[in-house]
Amino acid sequence: MPSILNPYITFNGDARQALEFYQQVFGGELSLNTYGDFGAGEGPGGDRIMHGMLSTSSGFTLMAADNPPGTDYTPGGNISVSVSGEDDTELRDYWAKLSGGGSVAVPMEKQMWGDVFGMCTDRFGITWLVNINQPRS
Question: Out of 14, 40, 73, 74, which could bridge 35 as a Cys pair, Cβ 3.0 to 4.6 Å?
Answer without folding.
Answer: 40
